[in-house]
Structures
1.
Amino acid sequence: MITGRFFASGADRRVLFTIAALLGVAALVPVLNLAVPPANMFHVPTYMVALVGKYLCYALLALALDLVWGYCGILSLGHGAFFALGGYAMGMYLMRQIGDRGVYGNPILPDFMVFLNWKELPWFWYGFDRFWFAALMVVLVPGALAFAFGWFAFRSRVTGVYLSIITQALTYALLLAFFRNDMGFGGNNGLTDFKDILGFSIQAGTTRSALFSASAVALAAAVYVTWRIVGSKFGKLMIAVRDAESRTRFLGWRPENIKLFAFTVSAVMAGIAGALYVPQVGIINPGEFDPSNSIEVVVWTAVGGRGTIVGPIVGALLVNTGKSYFTGALPDLWLFALGGLFVCVTLFMPKGVLGLWDQLRARFARNGGRTETPPQDAAQPVARSAAQTAVESRGLGAATPEPQPAE
Amino acid sequence: MRMPRVIVLLAALLAAGLFAASADEDGLRRIIAKFADAKDFKATEAVARELAETGDPAVERVLLALADGNLFVRKGDGAVFVGKETGASVTLSDPLTGEKAGEAAKAEITKVKVNNGLRRLIRDLLGGLTLGSADPLTRGVAADTMFRTPDAANIEALDAAIARETVASVKARLEQARAASILVSDGSDEEKVVAIAVVEARGDRDALSLLTAVAARTEGAVREAAENAIAQVNGRLALWAAGQNVWYGISLGSVLLLAAIGLAITFGVMGVINMAHGEMVMLGAYTTYVVQSIIRTSFPGLFDWSLAFALPLAFLVAAAVGLAIERGIIRFLYGRPLETLLATWGVSLILQQSVRTLFGPTNREVGNPSWMSGGFDLGQMALTWNRFWIVLFALGVFAVLLYVMKRTPWGLQMRAVTANRRMAASMGIRTPWVDALTFALGSGIAGIAGVALSQIDNVSPNLGQGYIIDSFMVVVFGGVGNLWGTLVGAMSLGVLNKFLEPYAGAVLGKILVLVLIILFIQKRPRGLFALKGRAVEA
């Protein structure tokens, strides 16, 4: 098909480059951190490794959101919930690894349970002393929740703003639930004070580098998976559901199944992101369920460019770097900046920085291409695909620029 | 042994119609002076009794002061005063008239000591004494005191008081006190069964504890009657408790209604969710704060009117901000509801941070006008005035909006645009104007909701955040484009929340409500009162 050629020539190279870059970073950074002496200008300090590792987890979360929002038109305001659930699953494993080195020295019960005077390990903590079980839960719990939630929501055709609000209610309900002490997840304080992961000290530089590499590799894998899904026939269906759900239904497809698949895959990816995030920051608490966190993820995706594979990664890295800078240098201004970002991105950059970049490049190419002089045949598809996706993203209902009353 | 003589004497005085006449003041002063010689509790008790036996209401001040430990004897001349400790010195006043009698250093005076037994005695004495008070309220309180500490010896005094009583409600309470006294006397079983019926009619917790004591103590018919009465009273109390829960639910529901109704209008007409809606509520609350600050510093006398000034101002401030948001941002995003949601979320962050920068991150104090503080009892339910007024206010706002929507040309246009935008535009309705004004109206209502919320909640930059998710739930549950849906949604969510709370706890109750809504939306994806039409989603 024609669109297939566009993907093959334009977007493909970008994706492959991203995967290569991520794998390269995964291999290189540990070396630069551990083997290069601190005095050398190529040395990467450990705090940097931890920080960027965290950003990579965020990027994975943003990519997960992009799969449902950018490609399937489901704006989830509750993706932080899947992230946090994956994080909790990993946190429970790390908690069990503490063993008798906790403050109370109980070999089985985590500290907070001893503190709350619990006598036995609750049933849902069984098995978390093994890594394979925890890893399975990291995937299964968010996936199962997303499947159950999506099953109900998509079948009864809850769409648009309603669905967004309901996903927000989901994460809010989980936030309230995890704040309760008798839930057995550490209540307000969450899970922290981790010691070991797979037998390696979690504080050690080597472990941190390994976690960084794992995050980068996971992100690369996610990019590959997303790319394959989006490029497949199924991906075309997802885009069709995004742009004209009713028309897709009338053509004989089942939009609810397509959405359910995308939503579940996305939740699993978010869960993995959370699981990689927790050992790197050393704590997981109910604050991760906060609805405002989930909405922030949406802005990362929007800034980078939704409906692209590389965009959310760029967006997550950019916004979080900005956040780290602002909250350190000008803490009062950060919320202004973030709020302004929400407004400006939606008003002026509906395709994100990546879309902007494509537009600029296309314009340059048309004006004589004085830059790197990309070959004419390569620049043309980029321009056309950008224009085409712009039409796609606005969708059928938005073809008329006027308000749509809630049905 | 305890009160009989007092009561008999009192009854005699009352019967003689002498109760109102003040006994000879010198005689009272002579008795009061004896406090100076009372060396132990027993002696003090005797003096207190003697004082009460005069039956003069004027001795109340002395006895109250004695019970509170505020009765002092001046070391120099043995004179007795009521005193109020202020730092190192004590302000003295006359024990009978309450006139100021100068100050004294603590070293110059000694306190008349009391213990708990003496305090109890004084309370009982006062109970008997105040039965003769000219104020029906005092008489009622005395009757209640006697009800709570029944004594067979009180019966005669109560009989006399009942015969003389003219206020029906006080009379009923006196009769209940008499019935309680009969229950502890050694009267006949028939008498007691009748008395149990009287106590049962009272039906509050005091009656319940009295009946429980009777049931444990007696045998046969009386016990049976008491147990039946306990069951009856328990049933009635459960009903009252349910009523109280409904009231709490309505109170919460009216707050939700205020917060959600503006959201429902804008969502209905324009199909956009305004995530900055909570911040409009916050702006309204801060407007109230500013108005009150100005009134406090410049026109302290007008404080009770502060809300009347704040209401229109809050409406205007929030409506102006809403109009600016609509004209400046939202109108460029029409047809993209999800992006509108994101942009308004950004606006909400900016507004929050602006208010934090201007007013500081801490809570600001907003006072209640005098007519909004305190509370009152309705049967066995306790209501507070501020909640009461807010319920009325919410219903008032609802009625006004209903009028605007159904009876004004503007409302007609709004409804037309909600039902079918293109058709409305074809009929000559300027839909952009309707959009802008609707958004301003919705925001303005959020502003006045903020005035109401400032009376019951902390005024902080996060005020709006606490209500926004609940407001969404109300809109999603009630359906859009229909004010009645919002009303029913808000009230049912409020009541449901408050009914779940006692069983599940506040947090779990809220989670349950959220889960129920998520399940409900499966059944009716467009809410309880969905608009019917042919519009197919795009």
Note: The longest strand of chain A covers residues 191-192.
2.
Amino acid sequence: MADSSRTNKRSSVEGEAQDSKRIKTNGDEKYNPYLAHLNEDNGNYSNSPLDKMHRHNTTALEASRAEDSDLNPWTGRRHSENYFKILKTRRDLPVHKQRQEFLDMYHSTQILVFVGETGSGKTTQIPQYVLYDELPQTHGKLIACTQPRRVAAMSVAQRVANELDVQLGEEVGYSIRFENRTGPKTLLKYMTDGQLLREAMHDPEMSRYSCIILDEAHERTLATDILMALLKEIAQRRSDLKIIVMSATLDAQKFQTYFSLRKEDPPAPLLAVPGRTFPVEIFYTPEPERDYVEAAVRTVLQIHAVEPEGDILLFLTGEEEIEDACRRISLEVDDMVRESDAGPMSIYPLYGTLPPHQQQKIFDKAPEPLKKGGRPGRKCIVATNIAETSLTIDGIVYVVDPGFSKQKIYNPRSRVESLLVSPISKASAQQRAGRAGRTRPGKCFRLYTEKAFKKELIEQTYPEILRSNLSNTILELKKLGIEDLVHFDFMDPPAPETMMRALEELNYLACLDDDGNLTRLGSMASEFPLDPGLAVMLISSPEFYCSNEILSITSLLSVPSIWIRPNNNRKRADEMKAQFAHPDGDHLTLLNAYHAYKGAEQNGEDVKNWCHEHFLSFRHLSSADNVRAQLKRIMEVNEIELISTPFQNKDYYTNIRRALLAGFFMQVAMRESSNSKVYKTVKDDQLVLIHPSTSVTNTYDWVVYNEFVLTTKQYIRTITNIRPEWLLEIAPVYYDVDSFEKGEIKSALVRLNEKVRRRQAMKGGR
Amino acid sequence: MVPPKEDHDDDNNNLDFEDAYDDIPLQHKRPFGAGLHKQRITFVPASDTHLKSVDDAPASKPPTDIADLYLSLVLPTESGGGKQKEDSTPPEEPTQTSAEMPCPICKLPVSDVDREEHEASFAHQVCLPHSHPPSALDRTRMGLNYLATHGWDPDSRKGLGFEQQGIQYPIKAKVKDNKLGLGIEIPKGIPPPKEREKLLDAKQVRKMVAKDKRKAERLHKELFGDNKLEKYLGL
């Protein structure tokens, strides 16, 4: 092969690449393990359609010819009929027309910014184009394509495996947190951005990859932002690593300038592919609306009454609002059908916590007319902003946009991360409008004035890095060996106060020393795909003789809530939950439920049915089980003992409660006064209530909580009763009385110290 | 159910729909959200139709804009030559403007004659180099120490990042606990909508009646209980 000399040079440059399973190519094709299967199946390697193609020197024509051939070049098997059917549709995608242009640019540059609107086919096609150009089987380095969401990574990988006519998990695989479906043959790997970041911790040069594609970079997730900064650095050291940054918005300039590696370099080249979109007419209200939910409902009904056929997409902010709107719309539509011969309408809610089979319903066809020749039916989807970019629903012609969405925001002063309803950005509004033009010209109704659009909305949604608690991120960066966080080249650097808070939190957890260097504990904590608090709790749990139990609790806290509370059966659900309730805390209740679930499993019961009867989510319990197995493996690798206190021992639950504090001593609240229900969080002085979902009936003076929920009121959720003496014992630095501001908590701690001292003196006297 | 009201349904252009809706006799009104679809929401088409969120060329308006606006307000007579003068000192002859040179510090045009006056002006003073008050961050914090050792100065009014281009302060959150639409402004001075009168249950009604009764009795006793009043009136 002509480029084998280049391959040789490359492998000598990074000869120290770690992955021992992968045997680097020596230029001698006979020894290449990636072609072994070809030889078996075919007996003759030279028949492969890829034979005459040369890495980084292929053309679209060559690739098409390889795709058209009877033999699958990746497996050596014959192409199925279905393959050619899919191939035909693939060739219709807008991105296909620019395949040659893409290859030319790809060959000429190291970093490429690629802009294609949703529906251009970029997520599925570009990695395949790269695959046919990189020819990974010749040099053993993979192609990675990152996605912000787990679901996307899985479904796209499946789709691409079908398109290439290979088995998912073989040549094409995916890797997400707690689930890895790749094998030794894998050439193209879809993964979440967070997963690639975790891999980078063990392979700081990303030496397993020859090309990394960052998809949906416009979403600016925390992990994508860090990956961009990291890849920018790596690209300067590794000139053979190619990077493609894919974005769906027109704001590509920022990426281009960011990715000019050196100051004097020109901005990274850009390739834009037009999406398959139709014009969208935009309407505003002449006056601001008093109640955006009601206005939204009325607009939907109005569209149903007067506009021609086409489905409706309504954006609202949260589950409650969406369910409420759905109810109101369906009541009114019933009226309209009865009174004025309107067509039928099916209404589907869509939000993140909806179970997948219900989410799938949005892809159902719109209903048929009620009678022959009657007015056509339509569907109306009431969604959160997950329908903005991540999910594409065909057939949407009308979009109703009230201009709000729930956004995460972090306040480093009170250390509260909360989801708040906030105005969207202009970019977001345009993205929403664009959803109307996917199948034919559409209309977007904005429930605000044009003036408000121009004046009230910010240009771009703030990237996640500016809105999050960074302690996890900082720990990862430290593990990646970044010394100087001040000058680290973030695209949008976080506020200094946010960074300071994260450093201090890690310092209190003993993951960083006072100079900000990673400690052994910190290094170990970063091995776990968990928040630092949870990781530290898990690592120190053997000291409390309950690592098995803490492992279970950690897994249960890492999955969505296992409790199911259907609206029409709340009472029964609460009764069932009370069966598992532990008087001392929700963490222990969780553990009880898990133990009961495992018990039912061991007794050979039908677990699904058992879960249904006990109002527990089978899906989340089994995923907690999976998470537990994964974490257990990491613990074993790090030689963390798995031990339990015997259940008969009276300290069984006490030990667990104490172990919780090892990671969560910064999330403790004290009751304000003996007859109040209001708690005050330690050091942050936030007044909070205990979330009504708790199974604890007693009111305790001191509690440790898992999360802070800010809705109309401030709540703490998942709480467990603790004794304040433990705080002084387990986290003496954090609970150093001198560091507290004057107040009830300080005086309580002073009294406590006094008590402890007296008790010790008495013991000493005896 | 309710027969369609002819007088409402065929009148699509009726803007006062809500009023018309109020005319429906009470017994025909449905309790919840009924007739929502008949209350139209008007829409106006967008003046700018293309779906672009970001301007190709970021509008970099000349900084004189606001000054022009200000001058056009304070000096309405000099509408043409508003730019030439910045001070609200008595207007001088336009011939003098040619001698004006921009001040090296505040870049405002100034003539030699009123230099002293100009240097005392607020606009000039603001442009003079000056120091900012130090940051309020607690200097003993471990996080601050770390950032400081790596070259971030809390008093420099700069953010983090390669060129210290990052944001200075965390993004503020605003809790929205109502359903008010985007861009609506509740004019001040108008009291919030009155809450509907609460319906009382039997127990509360009984209590209230008893309380009223006691009050009436006391009043009655005060007025008619003794004969002081009658005595006073000389009856």
Note: Chain B touches chain A through 60 residues (CB under 8 Å).
